[in-house]
Every structure is written in C-alpha cells, then in structure tokens.
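Example record

One chain of 288 residues, shown exactly as stored in the release files.
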Amino acid sequence: MGIRKLGYVGLNVTDVEAWTDLLGQTLGIGVNHAKAGTDKVTLAELDEYKYRVALYPSTEDTPRELGWIVDSPWELDRLTQRLTDAGFAVEDGFVEEKELRGATHLRWFTDPVGYRVELAVGEAKVRLGADRPAGGPGVTGLGHFVLASPKLQELRDLYESVLEFKLTDYRAPGLYFFRCNRTHHSIALANAETPSIHHLEFEHGSIDDVGRAYDRAKANDVPISISLGRHMNDKAISFYVRNPSGFHLEIGCGGIEVGDDWVPHDFGRSDEWGHHHAGASPFASPES
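Predicted structure tokens for this chain:
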C-alpha cells in the first residue's frame, strides 16, 4: 500500500493559548513554533518527529490539512495518477510547506467535503524524544481521527477505492473504520448532517499513562466529554476531552493490530464498558 500511516493534522484555531495549556499541562506535550507565511504556527511534538499537530491562529476553528505519509516518490506518483483518474485535481505543495512538514515530496487535493488532504514523503526527526510527564512515557504518537460528513459514500469511495485503505469493521447504519497498516484503524468515516472532525486520538504508552492524564484533566478542570471506557472493536481503553476548538480529543492506549486475514464485520454495540457521553452521542443506536 502506498499510504503508510497518518502523519499530521493541521488545525485553524481561535485560541492557540488554550490549546497550548491543554497540551502541556494535561497531556505533557511540548510545543515549538515556526513561520507559516506571515503567521506563527504552533507545532505539537507527540513523538520524536518534527510535529503531529499544527495549530494556525485563525478567526474560526476548522480543519486545515489532513496529512498522510506515503512510502516513496514512486508510490506518490502512482496515487497521484489514481486520484487524477478519479477526477481529483492534485497540486504540488510549496517549498515552505514541505519544509514545515519535514517532507521531501508533498502533494495535496481537496476531498469531497472540502478538506485539504496531503500526501507527504519523508518525515523529519528532530530530536531523541518528546518531553514526557513524570511517571511514564505519556503520549507516544498520533493515532487516528473520525471524520463525520453528509458525504459518507463519496468519502468511502475516496479512501477505499482510490487511496486503497482497507475496511476493518463497521457499525450500522453509518460508521466505518479503515486501516492503512496493521493498526486497527487510522481513519473512521461517519454519517452526519454537518461535516466535522468528531475526534482526534493521541496514543499513550500504557493504561497508567491514560489514567494519569485522566487525573490531570480532572485537576485542571478540563471538560471530560466521554468517560473512561473500552471500545468494542479495537479494544482500546480511553477517555475523551473537549478541546478548545470544540471537538473531542481521545486519550487512549492498547488498540489491537490486524492482519490481511481479517474479515470486516459489524461489531454491534460501541463499547465493552464505559465511554458514557456527557452530551448526546451522534453515533448512538438502539443496540448501544
């Protein structure tokens, strides 16, 4: 497969300082700063690579770019041709965009929802390791995101038929989980009236790291939007907080890996236990 993993997410945010406080005080994530044109962009360092989340100051809270890491320039060309054949206009990234991403090659297109999707070759490793909170490794990387949209079928066609993601499992009537490596899923697609990122997941090293983050969230009065629980499909243990841009951050660990012999199936109810929503769940169903 050409796409190897989820590389980074860029967000337009109205309150960079609130995001920085959440990342540092609750999740133990260090930030750096760089220039993006005339703006200063804040880069969240989840692991040893340059960044995984970029925060751009803005008058609105919206996704800016969704970045996938591609195996090689040859695979990038092959995927570009597949996208072009499917009717997507693919553009080269600017030199300064490649430098910011730490990529050697960068192309992008607009998905059916209107989000900018980037395909990058190369990652810049800038130090030995990210800052860690006391007591454990804390955040170890960027896991996945869930994209909710009224254009569910168009997005499924893009990721499954064009970009060659594999369906891992699903939950009727409109929630699908896709993988681009052995991790259970790197993206999930959901049916919704309004397009949005439902949540972005940060991988943690252990259940103790998740628990310590939970304690820090409570101590810092961070709104816990979904309580601690274990998912039915990928078996991850996690909780969710409401971030300053209004969507969820999932703080989790322990998701399973799957092989080529995995058979996609409807996994039924959403959770083994826990994961009680502070508000209404947009994905609720009678069997959940």
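Notes: The first helix runs from residue 16 to 26.
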